[in-house]
Specification:
By secondary structure, this protein is an alpha/beta fold. The chain contains six helices and ten strands; from the N terminus they run αββαβαβαββαββββα.
Amino acid sequence: MAESAYNPARDSAIIGDTAIPARREACVVGDRFVALTKIEEVQTVSQFVASLRRGGPVPERVLAVQGVSQFELDYLREELNKRQAAGTEIVPPVSPRLGRDIVHKQREPNVLLADLTRTGSDAYTAGLWLHADNELFGDHQTGQHVQGLVIIEAMRQMFIAVFETAYGRHNSHRDFYVVWDSIDITFQSFLFPLPASIHCEILEEDLSDESRAGYRMRMRVLQNEVCAADATVRFGGYDQSRIEAAETKRARRAVHEYLRARAAATEPVGVTS
């Protein structure tokens, strides 16, 4: 049986985790992830800057992890310079982020992947990149871990990115509309707003129908070599003209059936047409 994200027996074994011996590096997250500052080695951007302004210690290196955008990176550099700490290195999150044509998103904060790399004939990997203003954080961030909905969306962007890289770019004269048929996902451990990677393997590829490229892919989200989630997804990449025509046909039928049902419900009892 697969493990769940929370396993009391397993998690009790890590209570005595080894402390970090030195504080030469500061781990800084975006203000969105303030809950993670229960861990004493972690600070938000605002907490770190406030500490600097109070005359707190200046680290040799700032590890800027999830939720820290270029805007915050510039802010950190400015504040370090005020403390005459120009030599302090700021290690930014993974980059570059992926473009609109690869992940099918229109706003940069909603992109969850960076640095897509082909690692084998049918294998790809990408870094997880969390922007503090991502659409999924607006009303659904509880606790210290990253919510499951964010993981599912990251996987959705990953299989679309792999599809576009493996197939779409070789058919650049066509516009594709990706429709997923199923996803089977297991959450195995909590994922925290720290560096993580998403690994994708193409398991099946069906290109027999020219208007539909069918795929089955497996994806895993890893953090510190621990699998946070494992999923298998099946989907098709359709020519946009074909899927739009089918969608419009079904939408029209749904509207007409709804209106017929409404008319039947409001028709006086005993009146027949």
